[in-house]
What does this fold into?
Amino acid sequence: MKICGIDEAGRGPVIGPLVIAGVSIEESNLETLKKLEPKDSKMLSKKRREELFDQIQAITDYYIVIVEPEQVDAALIAPELNLNKLEGIKMAEAINNLNPDKAIVDAPSTNIKEFTEFMRSHLENKNTELLLEHKADENYAVVSAASILAKVTRDREIEKLNKIYGELGSGYPSDPKTRAFLAENWDIHPQIFRKTWATYKKVADQKKQKNLSDY
It folds into this structure.
């Protein structure tokens, strides 16, 4: 029996992508994965996440989806979509590519029953057992592993952006470096920002008003 874990990283940042990761392993090999002691990525140091990233990839099948800011914005603008549904579609994409017998998902939605049905509607293999839980990344090693792949992938994407555009911090609105970068570059590098985020809109509105008053 093939078991898959699904998790995301980068749901809340104003800069950079949302990353969905899926990790699949035969149930008979699950103990090998558990021996690596994967945890929810937030509970691990950056160094340990990096070590586990390679170790997990060496013993599992995996699939990683990078969702760029413009895709996030498009989902929030579209009347039939929202952030949860976008995640559900991308999580289903990962499951479809790994084709497990059972998929365990760290649920982003508070309405687990409704979200399970939404995800199921996007699965190609309708026989796949689908289990959604809150904090699945803390309770299942295979979901912890997916959490680590997602987090490390997002961190590496942010490092790439730092090299291209300069010091932009973590991308989260709570980060002073991110807020400073946003204030200076909101209209210079618009492609890296989630323009539907209140953080971005507030800065853009203030700058536009200032420009009008200067004019």
